[in-house]
Design goal:
Elements lengths: L19 E4 L2 E5 L7 E3 L8 H22 L1 H26 L6 E2 L7 E3 L16 E6 L3 H18 L21 E5 L3 H10 L4 E11 L5 E9 L34 H17 L11 E3 L6 E2 L13 H4 L1 H19 L2 H7 L4 H29 L3 H4 L3 H23 L5 H23 L14 E2 L6 E2 L14 H16 L2 E2 L6 E2 L26 H25 L14 H12 L3 H12 L15 H11 L7 E13 L3 H10 L11 E14 L5 E5 L5 H8 L7 E6 L2 E2 L4 H7 E3 L7
Parallel strand pairs: 6-7, 6-8
Antiparallel strand pairs: 1-2, 2-18, 3-21, 4-11, 5-10, 8-9, 12-13, 14-15, 16-17, 16-19, 19-20
Helix pairs in contact: 1-2, 1-9, 2-7, 2-9, 3-5, 7-9, 7-11, 7-12, 9-11, 11-13, 11-14, 12-13, 13-14
């Protein structure tokens, strides 16, 4: 169908017909002396839709390439510098981890000796408010005398008096309110039960037993109880200062199952018994000393630097994540600057825009993947040198490309670059956490059902469980496929080191044939674990799925103007196909659209009072339009709705309205920018829309070229509705915005 059959050629004067009418405080002027912001091209000057599609694709691709060249420093950082830093860090960490392999650590042959001190007053531990230094049983005249000798000698060593309590402590449920010295208890069982009921309350305990022998002989036996919390050599080392947390935060290398307090208590009780049994009760002196142990020299064992490859796999995915974030910022900034909106006004389709993004994204992905693989060979890393180079190249290229496309998908949910940056960094953190876990073989049931099958009670044969793959997430998150591929390649590409001799045994290597068959680590998983080739296949499927989701959500999610195609927009194509068949081809569809555009459209509502006659005539002309016109606008209305305060603010206003002058606003505030506009324009005319600020000029033009949708009413541009045929309108209409589109 011809859109404009007789546009004036250069040098030809257009028609001089002009009319003026008022509607909503705006002024419409049809004149031959002013240029228009809308240009409708003649069909004779149009190229085919296919040629126009490729021309637009080339323009947007050229735009993206120019941006790469213009910001070459950022491109250089993503493609070369960042991969160099990542591979260099991985290589450096691997070398540093094996730097001390085989190193001889000279031992300390010096031996220190010091005199064992006495028993100091106990200090309460964090779990108790007070403590008992020594408890003893039973309380008799003899045992009390023995403990007196114990206290006298201990005071001479420590200059601290441990007071001997006269009252027997027989309450199992109570705890001391202050630190106590030497406390008698009923029996030995009480010591055991009280220590269980109140941990860290008793420091030391002793239970005496007196046995009468024939011929007047007497045997004294005793049992020592000690607190393991204090059993550490650091408590008796010279210069040691006791702290409340010393028992919990002690150094493990100093741990001693007996500790210094046990021999200290044994010496003190032996001295007290010897003094008690001596007829003259002469104070006994037993000299005990402590000696440190010398440490022998040792040789560090050997480890393989390949052990860290899986753990550092997240760093290898870092360049792809940074490229994804940069691509997200570029796309969202095009949204913010209205660049993409302007290109769509000029006829660029959403599919064409994303196709250009997908094509130009290969540039960065190919360069980045090639640089990483080349650096891996340059650093002679076994993960690269002992694996097929093409497989590694495909793995990194597909990762970078798929992550970029995943970033494009996330931008459909973002209107601001700050939001996109937040999404990008959140995904970056997920990659840094998840990739090394999967590369090391964790979460095996992400790929396969690892539940145990049934066991035959007679034969003992294990029947494997039904194969149930759970890799659906791999079709959305490409870094999951990368982690599995990295782990599978590493199982055969990496080597091992003899811990004693340090001899490196390289792995068998990952060849191209291993893509289709890689032996599982256990026979049970034979046929269950996906082969490496499926990882590349899943990555390609992931790319296709993410691309389709990007196209869908880009249409469904409303933009900042509230424009959306609806959740089932794809059903319109089916309706167009039925109309094409019903009306007998494109010519019949064009005739039907022309008939729909020339139907009588009644004026909505009641006309205002006191209108000028030319305004009434223009409205009647638009209502009863029975001929082909360039533009027909009927009852075009645009209402902007501003949401009121949020829930919490509404709650606050409702609660405080009785004590302040703040009035609660309504939930929604409506502002009608265009109110039932009706007008027509003839072909071969220059049309200028004039009016004061706020009259609705810009809103009307935005509805005509599809930036925003009308609240009600319709407009037809050469029989094409702005509600249903905007893409066709844009293919024949040019818009000159106020800023540079490209």
């Amino acid at each position: 169908m011809s859109i404009d059959r007789t546009l004036p050629h250069q040098g030809e004067a257009p028609s001089s017909y002009s009319r003026t009418h008022n509607n909503n405080d705006s002024q419409t002027t049809k004149t031959a002396s002013k240029a228009s912001s809308l240009v409708v091209y003649a069909s004779s000057r149009q190229s085919s839709s296919t040629a126009r599609w490729f021309r637009q694709l080339a323009v947007v691709c050229r735009l993206n390439v120019l941006l790469l060249v213009r910001y070459w420093k950022a491109a250089l950082l993503q493609a070369i510098i960042l991969p160099l830093l990542v591979v260099g860090v991985v290589y450096g960490v691997q070398k540093a981890s094996t730097a001390d392999d085989g190193k001889v650590i000279v031992g300390d042959s010096a031996v220190s000796t010091w005199t064992m001190p006495g028993i100091s007053q106990c200090k309460p531990e964090p779990l108790s408010n007070a403590c008992m230094t020594v408890v003893y049983s039973p309380q008799t005249a003899e045992t009390t005398q023995i403990m007196n000798y114990f206290q006298t000698q201990n005071q001479a060593r420590t200059n601290q008096e441990l007071k001997i309590e006269s009252q027997v402590w027989d309450d199992l449920n109570s705890v001391p309110k202050s630190n106590m010295g030497i406390v008698p208890v009923p029996n030995e069982k009480f010591i055991y039960d009280y220590a269980l009921a109140h941990p860290d309350t008793i420091q030391l305990g002793v239970a005496f037993t007196k046995q009468e022998q024939p011929a007047g002989l007497v045997n004294w036996n005793y049992q020592i109880y000690y607190n393991m919390t204090h059993a550490t050599n650091t408590s008796v080392m010279p210069g040691f200062i006791y702290t409340k947390e010393a028992g919990y935060n002690r150094v493990a290398s100093y741990d001693d199952p007996y500790g210094a307090q046990l021999p200290n208590m044994i010496r003190a009780i032996d001295e007290a018994l010897l003094t008690f049994l001596d007829p003259q009760h002469t104070q006994a002196q037993l000299d005990y000393s402590l000696k440190s142990f010398p440490t022998a020299s040792k040789v560090n064992g050997f480890s393989s630097q390949d052990n860290l490859v899986h753990m550092l796999s997240n760093l290898m995915a870092l360049p792809a994540c940074i490229t994804m974030i940069m691509a997200m910022l570029r796309v969202t900034r095009e949204k913010e600057s209205k660049c993409r909106e302007s290109m769509e006004m000029m006829g660029l389709s959403s599919f064409n825009y994303w196709m250009a993004q997908w094509l130009t994204s290969w540039i960065m992905a190919i360069i980045q993947g090639s640089v990483i693989v080349a650096l891996g060979y340059a650093f002679k890393m076994p993960m690269f040198s002992n694996a097929n180079g093409f497989v590694m190249w495909c793995m990194f290229v597909l990762l970078a490309y798929a992550m970029t496309l995943l970033g494009f998908l996330l931008t459909t949910f973002c209107q601001k670059s700050g939001t996109a940056l937040g999404f990008g960094f959140a995904l970056l953190v997920a990659v840094l956490i998840v990739v090394p876990m999967l590369a090391q073989g964790m979460w095996a049931d992400l790929w396969v059902n690892t539940s145990t099958g049934s066991i035959n009670s007679t034969t003992g044969v294990v029947t494997p469980s039904e194969v149930t793959y759970t890799w659906v997430l791999c079709f959305i998150f490409p870094f999951l496929n990368f982690a599995r591929l990295w782990g599978q390649v590493g199982t055969v590409a990496l080597g091992s080191v003899n811990y004693t001799t340090g001899v490196y045994q390289p792995g068998p290597g990952f060849n191209f044939t291993n893509l289709t068959y890689l032996a599982p680590p256990q026979e049970y998983f034979e046929g269950l674990v996906p082969q490496p080739a499926s990882g590349l296949t899943y990555q390609l499927i992931c790319i296709a799925v993410v691309a389709l989701l990007t196209l869908y959500f880009d249409k469904v999610i409303p933009d900042d103007h509230g424009r959306s195609s609806g959740a089932f927009f794809y059903l319109r194509s089916i309706g167009d196909a039925f109309r094409f068949i019903r009306h007998g081809g494109s010519a019949g569809v064009a005739r039907q659209k022309s008939a729909d555009a020339q139907k009588v459209i009644p004026y909505e509502g009641i006309p205002p009072q006191g209108e000028d006659s030319d305004v009434i005539a223009e409205r009647e002309r638009a209502v009863n339009c029975q001929s082909e016109v360039a533009i027909r606008i009927s009852n075009l209305t645009k209402t902007y709705t501003k949401n009121g305060p949020g829930f919490f603010k509404n709650l606050y206003l409702s609660l405080c309205c009785c004590c302040c002058r703040t009035r609660r606003r309504s939930n929604k505030v409506e502002n009608r920018a265009v109110d039932r506009l009706n007008l027509t324009t003839e072909p071969n005319e220059l049309f200028a829309l004039l009016g004061q600020n706020g009259a609705g000029k810009s809103t009307t033009m935005q509805m005509l070229y599809g930036v925003t949708t009308p609240a009600s009413g319709n407009a037809f541009l050469f029989n094409r509705s702005i509600k249903t045929d905007m893409q066709a309108i844009r293919s024949t209409m040019g818009v000159c915005p106020q800023h540079d589109v490209l």
